[in-house]
Amino acid sequence: MAVEMMSEMLENVDFQEFGISSQRYLESGTVMKEEEVEEIRKKDAVLFGAIGDPRVRPGIMERGVILNLRATLDLFANVRPVRSFVTGRELVVFRENTQEFYVGIGGDRSGIERPLGLYGCEGTIGVRLSVRGNMAFDIGIMSEAHLRRFFSRLSIYRGRKITVTDKANAVPNMYSLWRSVAAEVLQRDGFEFTFQYADSVAYDMARNPEKYEVIVAPNLYGDILSDLAAGLFHGLGFAPSANIGDRRPGLFEPVHGSAPDIAGKDIANPFATILAASMLLEYNGHPGLSKAINDCVAECYRSRILTPDAGGKMRSSEVFREFMKKLRGAV
Ligand code: IPM
Ligand code: MN
Q1: Quick one: 54 exposed, middle or buried, by C-beta within 10 A (0-12, 13-18, 19+)?
Q2: pLDDT in the model for residue 328
Q3: Residues 189-210: what's their mean pLDDT?
Q4: Closest CA to 77 of 95, 99, 91
Q5: Superfamily of domain 86-105+137-233
Q6: Which residues belong to any copy of the Isopropylmalate dehydrogenase-like domain (predicted)?
Q7: Lowest pLDDT segment from 46-60, 105-119, 212-226, 250-264
Q8: Ligand 1 pocket test: which of 53, 60, 62, 258 has the largest number of ligand atoms within 8 Å of its C-beta?
Q9: Quick one: what percent of the chain has pLDDT higher than 90?
Q10: Residues 117-130: pLDDT tens digits?
Q11: Which 8-state DSSP code applies to residue 236?
Q12: How many CB atoms sit inside 10 A of residue 298's CB?
């Protein structure tokens, strides 16, 4: 639907669809081909649906496709805004997107492995452990140069209230580096900001979400806090995200997963993907169209043109039809 919308609204744009899916993996054993990654790399922008299927062991598609794309396309920041259609208020989770516990380095008693090879790993980390019974580990890594460019991307939020979160009290090495780079870059760029531990942010968000405007979070907490943020507003059905780096293509996707339980029933909420397409347009030279889409989504919300998850009674296809009528009228 989001592609249909963009093809109708834009001239001279070519779309290429990639058949990357759990179904294909189940049939052929292929998660994502090297050539596919190379083709994707040449595009101006990528719209990503969602991945995950209960018939496939957790992690295979997620790590093999979306985490792999984030890392290989070097999309080091993930912008996850949620907006109230009632008050217009926006809360953004600005998530570090490729490092920390997502580097894909870990193992068990039999040794260390880098199944994805997302990061080059030179040298060895030598620790002799004495653990009874089974054990397993995943290593969290953050690098200074990476954090410096990540925090530098916050410059788009000048004037907003910034909260930088972590668990520097429990995991001090990584998050001390995180804090020192945050302080250096944000002070340089003239920001006012505060640090707050992630557990405490979760508590305050649940009780008093107005306290926050931009929450800057490491990868894993950013994942969790962005779902929480969506839940505090209109739900995951309205939560888009932009995976961005210093180069094209950026990758735009809904925050939600593939919802396999409702696949094919024509009741999935189309708005998170439509809003992700809107972010794609905003980041790729079509701010006017992007704003028109956001406004029409808000209008659909207010006129209850909604699927059941959002309290409506309409099917996805009907919602989309009504939405497109509004959008055609608006541009
Ligand atoms: C997200 C998802 C992914 C993540 C999963 C599918 C690996 O939850 O984009 O929020 O953890 O980043
Ligand atoms: Mn998530």
Answers
A1: exposed
A2: 97
A3: 97
A4: 95
A5: Response regulator (3.40.50.2300)
A6: 1-323
A7: 105-119
A8: 62
A9: 88
A10: 556 655 566 777 78
A11: G
A12: 18
Minimum CA distance residue for ligand 1 atom 5? 62
Residue spans of the domains in the chain: they are 1-76+240-331, 86-105+137-233
Q: Is the CB of 62 under 6 A from ligand 1?
A: yes
Q: How far apart are CA 116 and CA 103, in angstroms?
A: 9
130 CA → ligand 2 middle, Å: 34
The pLDDT assigned to 114 comes to: 63
pLDDT tens track for 13-23? 999 999 999 99
How far apart (Å, rounded) are the C-alpha atoms in residues 171 and 169? 6
The CA distance from 312 to 319, in Å, is 10
CA distances from 164 to 47, 73, 92, 186, 201 (A): 28, 25, 12, 10, 10
Is the preceding omega at residue 249 within 30 degrees of 0, hence cis?
A: yes
CATH numeric code, 1-76+240-331:
3.40.718.10
Nearest partner of 280 among 299, 256, 253, judged by Cα: 253
Token pair of 124, please? 């060895």
